[in-house]
Design a protein that fits this description.
The chain has 254 residues and is of the alpha/beta class. The chain is 19% helix and 38% strand. The strands form three sheets. The chain has a seven-stranded antiparallel beta sheet with strand order 4-3-7-1-2-6-5. A hairpin with a 2-residue loop joins strand 14 and strand 15. The structure holds flavin-adenine dinucleotide and FE2/S2 (inorganic) cluster (FES).
């Protein structure tokens, strides 16, 4: 069940030049949230802007908090970057269908994140109780990587400019290191998800991708976020906000 809550800002800080790490107290949302879901955050500045979808990076059900890590790209995220501890914001969630987590502790889950697609994989990594490998791709430098190590993953980093780890993209890194896994959970740019899906399908590995699409209502009411999805021998449109954001890569029409 979704809740709309007046969430109290617990902390808000920069973890990179244009990336903020926001922790908010919203006990009803935190109680029901799971890995791969997102919240809709309202920019309440009097301009009546639409809510912005942001993935849940971490959930603390005991404290009733969720952590959101976001890149400042426009009006809404710029407003969120200015929030101070004690401020109140309206948040709707938990939204969408997240990752179905593998339960076999002897198997290996591979988490593949690209850029601002990395945050939802941290909660996923923490909830998984199997062997974990995280392949994290950045344009330059890195963020959150040590937290994946602390959550029990063997971490590989790729950067476009070679400033950290492997020089190149995540899929090239997977090939170079010949990484093996039983299931893949991924989030990042569509082009990365497309090539990752090909790599996974060639090896017969189940792969779940979190798709990003521009959203308006965020709750399945406006068809603003549809993507084409295979449907038997045919295809249909599905809503990223309600049917996703996580889809089996075999269903997605790239
Ligand atoms: C399911 C989902 C999870 C996301 N998780 C994160 C996250 O964890 N961290 C993060 O930094 N970003 C995330 N995004 C992208 C984030 O929603 C956009 O960057 C943000 O809405 C931009 O708002 P803005 O006002 O700053 O930019 P503007 O460009 O001014 O936004 C204008 C409008 O377009 C919509 N919009 C713009 N870009 C996007 C986008 N990429 N996806 C969806 N709607 C968009 C906005 O919601 C708004 O309605 C996620 C998107 C989706 C769909
Ligand atoms: S954003 Fe309205 S249906 Fe998905």
């Amino acid at each position: 069940m979704k809740h709309i809550e007046k969430a109290k800002v617990i902390s808000n800080r920069y973890i990179a030049d244009d990336i903020c790490d926001l922790v908010i107290e919203c006990p009803n949302i935190a109680k029901e949230a799971g890995a791969g879901q997102f919240v809709e955050v309202y920019p309440d500045n009097g301009e009546n802007l639409l809510a912005r979808p942001i993935s849940i990076c971490e959930i603390d059900k005991t404290k009733g908090t969720v952590r959101l890590v976001f890149r400042i790209v426009g009006k809404g995220t710029a407003l969120f970057s200015e929030l101070k501890s004690g401020d109140i914001i309206r948040v709707l969630g938990p939204c969408g269908n997240g990752y179905r987590l593998m339960e076999d502790s002897k198997k290996t889950a591979l988490l593949v994140g690209g850029g601002i697609g990395i945050p939802p994989l941290l909660e996923t990594c923490k909830e998984l109780e199997c062997n974990k490998i995280a392949v994290l791709g950045y344009s330059s430098g890195s963020f959150l990587a040590e937290e994946f190590t602390r959550a029990g993953a063997k971490v590989y980093i790729s950067t476009d400019d070679g400033s950290e780890g492997f020089k190149g993209n995540t899929v090239d890194l997977l090939k170079a290191e010949d990484i093996k896994a039983d299931v893949i959970y991924s989030c990042g740019p569509k082009i990365m998800l497309k090539f990752l899906s090909q790599w996974a399908m060639e090896r017969g590995i189940d792969c779940y991708v979190s798709m990003e699409e521009r959203m308006a209502c965020g709750i399945g009411a406006c068809v603003g976020c549809v993507i084409p999805i295979k449907d038997g021998g045919d295809w249909t449109y599905k809503k990223v906000c309600k049917d996703g954001p996580v889809f089996d890569c075999k269903e997605v029409i790239w």
